[in-house]
Amino acid sequence: MEEEKKIERLRAIIDESAYTVILSGSGMMAECGYMGMKTPEKAYEIEKTYGVSPEDIFTSVYYNNRPAEFFKFYRNEVLQGDVDTSETFRTAARMEQKGRLKCIITGNIYEYPQKAGCHNVINLHGSIYENICPHCGRKYPLKYIKASKKVPLCEDCSRVIRPQVALFGEMMDSRLMTKATWEIENADTLILLGTTLDSEVFSKYIKYFEGRNLVIIHKEHHHSDSRADLVIWDEPRNVFTKLGY
């Protein structure tokens, strides 16, 4: 089926759907202009610069025991993802306003959907915009973390501020997991953007989908694509901007 016909079919699916949910994967970071730290090229660059892998430095062990090194990495690498959103999410926001989209579930920590105007968003791995003192609970904006010279300390009790993002090896927030599972269980259309059915982040949730339409939109072919009802091999923005919302 030609891509134009697939896009027409996708529009029909969304219009007829009573409950559409989007899963936003790591491919959406690239679409917004940020290369995630787990991509081979970036992981190699990080290991060459810091002498350790992203999986080693972006951990609670480094945060607790080597906070200066952790925050140097956090500011120089992780916060580089604080960039503008994409047309895909702007389209998604219009879909939400028209009642065509119920929820976006994302594994990214940069709030790209919210920047576009989406409201019902589940950030499975937290957000760089939420920073809290683990001792007294005082909240700090992202600009405070960015402006800190070395280790950002609480102005009230001098404890190290904790970005509210999931670090490698940490347990997920069970409340967010339950909420994401509920959304997928209730969806009759599930759209995967920039990710696959075998995603390390999403596969545990996708198994709860029992709806009618499973749609995948990403650039590269994947062996799991055959399990979907509709697959469009292209950048999500090239598809969503043609939906007419």
Automatic annotation (TrEMBL):
EC category: transferase
Binding site for Zn(2+): 133, 136, 154, 157
Pfam family, one: SIR2
Residues annotated as the enzyme's active site: 125
Keyword terms of this UniProt record: Hydrolase, Metal-binding, NAD, Transferase, Zinc
Top-level lineage group: Bacteria
Keyword Calcium: no
Chain's gene name: cobB_1
Sequence ranges assigned to domain Deacetylase sirtuin-type in this UniProt record: 1-245
Name the record gives this protein: protein acetyllysine N-acetyltransferase
Entry EC number(s): 2.3.1.286
Native organism: Blautia producta
MF GO annotations: histone deacetylase activity, NAD-dependent; hydrolase activity; metal ion binding; NAD+ binding
